[in-house]
Amino acid sequence: MKPARIRPRLAAAVTAGALIALAVPTTVVPAFAVISDPGTHIITVFPERDMVSAEGYAAGDRPTIQVLRGGAVIGTSSVLTPVAGIVEVNHPGGGCWEGTTPDIRPGDVVRVLTAPDVGDQTFVGNVTVTQRATKINANTVVMKGTAVAAGGGQLPADQLEARVVASNQSFALNGRRTLRAGAPGSGEDGVVVYDGPGLTTWTATWNGLAGVGADGLSDADRAASPTSAESRGMWLGRDAAVGNEVTIFEYAAIGGPAGPECTAPLAKGPSTPDLTAASDTGRLNTDNITRSTTPSFTGAVALPDAASVNLYIDGVASGSASVAANGSYSITSSRALANGRHTVTAGEVSPGGIETRSVGSLAFTVDTVAPVVTAKAPAINSLMVSQTANVTATFSEPIAGIGFASFNLKNSEGAVIAAPVTWNATTRAATLNPNVTLNPDRKHTVAVTAGITDIAGNPIVANSWVFTTGPRPVVTAKSPAANATGVSRTANVTATISERVTGVANGTFALRNAATGALVSYAVSYNATTRVATLNPNVTLAANTRYTATISASIKDAGGNPLSGLSWSFTTGR
Fold first, then answer.
1. Which stretch is the leader sequence (predicted)?
2. Which bin fits 483, alpha (ψ -120 to 50), beta or left (φ > 0)?
């Protein structure tokens, strides 16, 4: 018989449409999750049917339901659509578990997320029915079970309830399809009490069940019939009056996927291993990238009596560990892994030595290579850089942590220059755009700090480089003019330069016979105030002869920017 679906304080509605089962790796919930425990929504768990129902959600919500064991997610159903405010998993008309159907058991945590790090959660109460409703006499039915608090010992009496749910007829006793038994004095149809001080076994008793229904069955016979009614033990939550968390144990219910919509097989081995928080060094807890060559993995076993778990990386045995009391496992790879892509699975071992492998596998990447800057603009020790130029650094791989604090520009006095930083993921280039025009003829320093990492968390080696702003000096006036004729044979040659420079001397400012290349004997002087370089020939120049003046790029301004080299010719007179 399929158990009747009766829930305490819950509206009768189901979600529309089932989700396609997808293989999703086990994940560990991030430490920064903002989770209410138990929360404002109602979460009801049916562990014997591996079903979860949650209510109180808006039509636009798309909640994700997770089951966690030992901190590892062992079941996920995502992007659920509320109907009348209710979302359900593994129930006809509701969503389905993805990859595998978790074998939900007491102590597991059920979480309903409305955002990646926001939601409500409850744990699965440890209540069972060990003997279904049994007729004692014409008037009396009893049910037996267990109820254990999270920390051990008896569950508080007001959190325990037993129910008999008829499949289609109402009971004559109360006109409802449900007989309820609560703590003495609760006013329910029957009472449930522990079998003795300190004992966690209980007995529920209903009297006055001689009444007969329309089908001729007495209430006692209906409650005790396995085809006419279902027996349930219930945990009513940490605050039974609020009723926002409920666990319903259904006697003789069958677990596994609720077909035909849901087909994800029941988990028969450990959950797919996931990187532990310490090994998951990537930017996201879901990117499965680590810079550790001996990463650790965590998960949960399926069998309550599993003794140990073996780890297999790329099919090779790579470590083992005992199962923790909460059903979780954590194993560090026993061998160092090379950089690149790897696949990990796990196998749990029963006390009899039988190993059962995980249904799924996790693909992860080991990356121990730190990023480097492959191109810099302006280049190292560049001169004559535009005062309005941007600064760019191109990286060898995708990075994280790029920003003003980790990529900055300083002036010649060491002060940081305000500049927004942008990142182009396609070109892997970071661009720093100064908010001001840079000072001319000054050295500037670009710094890249170890705050920048690749997506595996490997930090870049801090480094810096220097460039010098322009403008470069140029000759703004010259005498004699280019191609002048009839120039005095005793005239000086002058060049006016755009800014103060150094290095004006014999050799950097020279005069030659244009035809023979012979150097004219001369003396050079420089007036820093007028910025005029003067070449005074020591001899009278030959008549009607073409001469070439040359001023060299060895002449530099205060920032070291070289003069734009120049030569020009003129012809003397008689």
1. 1-23
2. left
